[in-house]
Design a protein that fits this description.
This protein is mainly beta. It has one helix spanning 5-24; strands spanning 26-34, 46-49, 64-65, 71-78, 81-87, 95-96, 106-109, 115-119, 122-123, 133-140, 152-155, 170-171, 177-182, 187-193, 201-202, 212-215, 221-225, 228-229, 238-246, 258-261, 276-277, 283-289, 293-299, 307-308, 318-321, 327-331, 334-335.
Length: 339
């Protein structure tokens, strides 16, 4: 059978193009030679990225584990930039940094290195084991700083909230202020305030200053000084103590309780708002606030376990008017998930 000339000439460049494309693609091997010590035994580790629509549990991209505990995978041929992360099968178990915070996507360019070796610091569902912390110390500050004022750290870590109580500095009996800052990124930009932007730190002439910047390294302590405050109008605070005096019979002895309200964005399981125990063994927590009223509810860590009425219906938000009583005794009738 005689081949048509035009068909034959068309096939040659197509075949050549396919051959050239194949030869320009690279195979990429990725190795993980370190995982957190508290990784659950026999865990499967997956790689996910822009090559599989970010599917965190794609069995095609489950990594192979050798006898030494090293994980590896050979990715399909490709060109250009590859973005990826490691998981243990879903996004609740994605890798985190050493302090348990989100990390940026990893990236590489096909062909730059035949083998890329990575280490995993922490998982989303495990406790951080090697968190890098730096103590920020304000050893020198203006003499006119009010004695009972708190100093706050406003930064990109807390969306530049100038009066975020979870970022308030502690005052040492010797007079200096300090705070442990966990590494959430490579660097942090921040400023100090006394609770709002009207009282932000300034230079000696009360002029605005640029954001402070610190990049985490091997230092465990950083000493800082504040030259002046824009104004001395600081955020005045009060304290209210909540005691869980009576709990439902279905409550277990070792359970942890949380208070969620308009003072912590209604976060039902924020560890900064978990109850401790008083001398009688009762769950107790003290809230520091500048609000005249507090709206809140009690949970066991999520909204599925929030307090309810005996009938199982939702309870209205509890309301406390500050300055009327500095200790509130509470009775929980029932938990939403235990009827």
């Amino acid at each position: 059978m005689k081949m048509n000339f035009f068909s034959e000439t068309r096939l040659v460049p197509v075949a050549l193009s396919a051959l050239m494309l194949l030869s320009s693609c690279y195979r990429q091997k990725i190795v993980v030679d370190q995982i957190p010590l508290n990784t659950p035994a026999n865990s499967a580790i997956y790689i996910t990225g822009n090559f599989n629509n970010w599917d965190p549990g794609d069995e095609r991209f489950r990594m192979n584990r050798d006898s030494a505990g090293t994980y590896s995978i050979m990715l399909p041929r490709g060109i250009g930039e590859l973005s990826y992360k490691f998981t243990r099968g879903d996004w609740t178990r994605v890798e985190k940094n050493e302090c348990g915070y989100d990390i940026q996507n990893r990236s590489l360019v096909y062909g730059e290195e035949d083998v890329v070796t990575d280490q995993i610091e922490c998982w989303g569902d495990t406790e951080p084991m090697n968190c890098t912390q730096t103590v920020f110390v304000i050893a020198d500050y203006p003499e006119d700083t009010p004695e009972d004022a708190l100093i706050y750290m406003a930064s990109e870590y807390n969306f530049w909230n100038p009066g975020d109580l979870s970022y308030a500095m502690q005052k040492h009996p010797k007079g200096f202020y300090f705070r442990n800052v966990e590494k959430q990124g490579d660097c942090i930009e921040f400023k100090f305030t006394m609770g709002d932007w009207a009282s932000v730190e300034t230079d000696n002439r009360h002029r605005d200053i640029a954001n402070r910047r610190y990049c985490f390294d091997d230092k465990d302590t950083v000493f800082l000084s504040v030259k002046a405050w824009k104004t001395l109008n600081y955020r005045k605070l009060s304290k209210v103590t909540f005691v869980l005096e009576k709990l439902p019979p279905t409550t277990r002895p070792d359970e942890t309780f949380y208070i969620a309200g308009d003072f912590n964005n209604w976060d039902p399981g924020n560890p900064d708002y978990s109850f401790g125990r008083d001398q009688k063994g009762r769950p107790v927590i003290t809230i520091t606030t500048d609000k005249e009223t507090l709206e809140y509810k009690i949970t066991r860590g999520n909204w599925k376990s929030v307090e309810t009425m005996l009938s199982g219906k939702d309870v209205p938000n509890r309301l406390n008017i500050n300055h009327n009583n500095d200790t509130i005794l509470l009775k929980i009738d029932q938990w939403k998930d235990r009827r």
